UniProtKB/TrEMBL annotation:
One Pfam family named in its UniProt record: DUF1996
Keyword Signal in record: yes
Organism: Echria macrotheca
Keyword set, alphabetical order: Signal
Native organism taxonomy: Eukaryota, Fungi, Dikarya, Ascomycota, Pezizomycotina
InterPro entries: DUF1996
Protein name: DUF1996 domain-containing protein
Domain called DUF1996: residue spans: 45-303
Length: 364
């Protein structure tokens, strides 16, 4: 997003269902928004495949450097075991991860990982590093009761389903935005998963990149920090919007901050119109999805005690985006310096052509 004051106000208005009912100002909006640089790219997933090296598909991971193949909350407490975080918010040692995208050469069928880029900062520039994501924590944009209860230690969840190959019903919770060259830094404008975005991969060249948005549930059962499918303990708010209201279903009565990711993939090298003829497109997710409906994200909570609750309570006053006096902000350079070696060691460079995608997923 372009983060001049006027654009911030415009975005906040677009994020609600009833724009006229909002009194949004740049010094009082309903979300935190901050960048996280790339911690590591590897085939690990401590939520879906705990304890497994070389899980089925490749992820980009950001956040606290205590990230491990097993993140058992009884043995690993990210705020205590992490020595640094790749996120701008110093008190956030959570881990956030998303799938990689590959370009498949129409000429010889080899693959290159699509480079990732950061989204725009408040000053209108990108963090100077390949990769990373932009994270949002949002409270309800509509309704009168905006109180949210933050996650408990050990909390984790996933959004989206990598097995999907048909368009899901209801509001888009994961989507792709095709960017023009002029939108490369800003990431485009407008509400997330707007009607102009697509649940599937774009069917046209995207010279400014593709912005993938992953929107997590905003309601919790109030008891379980996880569930066997990593979804059942949370739920989306009822209604036709993909963003949280002040309502939650009776089965999941506790309103939690709505987490959202923006992930920027640099497709400028792969924007040849010849790749998009006859309804075809050359991109594939690291888990073998050639359509794009399987976009998903994983979340593991790791804020220091009370920090996120202070911020959520301060929203609407002088706390917004990266400018929130109750939180500590580190420099982009310090965030970028927080990395860790691969645990599942293999070639993942975006400069290298591969005969197959790591894990050799079946293309569907």
């Amino acid at each position: 997003m372009a983060w001049a004051k006027g654009v911030l106000i415009s975005l906040a208005a677009l994020l609600v269902q009833d724009v006229a009912a909002q009194g949004i100002s740049a010094k009082g909006s309903d979300f935190l928004r901050f960048g996280c640089s790339q911690l590591v790219i590897e085939r690990t997933d401590p939520i879906v495949n705990p304890g497994t090296l070389y899980t089925p598909h490749l992820h980009q991971i950001v956040g606290g450097n205590s990230f491990n193949i097993t993140m058992d909350p009884m043995t690993i407490d990210p705020p205590k075991t992490s020595k640094c975080t790749s996120c701008r918010m110093v008190e956030d040692f959570s881990n956030y991860w998303t799938a990689s995208i590959f370009f498949r050469s129409p000429e010889n069928g080899t693959y290159r990982r699509v480079p990732q880029m950061t989204n725009g900062q408040l000053n209108g520039t990108l963090m100077p590093q390949e990769g990373g994501i932009t994270v949002y924590y949002m409270r309800p944009f509509s309704g009168t009761n905006k109180k949210t209860t933050v996650f408990k230690p050990g909390f984790r969840m996933i959004a989206g389903d990598p097995s999907l190959r048909t368009k899901p019903s209801g509001p888009m919770m994961n989507c792709h935005r095709c960017l023009s060259k002029s939108e490369r830094t800003s990431g485009g404008s407008g509400a997330p998963c707007a009607p102009t975005d697509t649940a599937e991969f774009p069917k046209k060249p995207c010279p400014g990149g593709i912005r993938v948005t992953v929107i997590f549930p905003s309601c919790w059962d109030g008891k379980n920090v996880d569930s066997p499918d990593h979804r059942s303990h949370v739920a989306y708010a009822p209604g036709s919007s993909n963003l949280a209201s002040d309502k939650c279903p009776a089965t999941h009565p506790v309103r939690i901050p709505q987490v959202m990711y923006e992930v920027m993939y640099d497709t400028s090298e792969f924007a040849n119109p010849e790749y998009y003829k006859d309804g075809k497109q050359p991109l594939v997710y690291s888990f073998g999805d050639t359509v794009g409906y399987g976009a998903h994200g994983d979340y593991l909570f790791g804020w220091t005690d009370g920090a996120l609750q202070r911020a959520m309570d301060a929203l609407g006053t002088n706390c917004f985006s990266e400018s929130c006096p109750v939180l500590k902000l580190q420099s982009p350079a310090d965030a970028i310096a927080c990395t860790k070696p691969q645990q599942a060691k293999e070639e993942v460079s975006s400069d290298v052509w591969l005969k197959e995608i790591p894990g050799s997923p079946m293309m569907r």
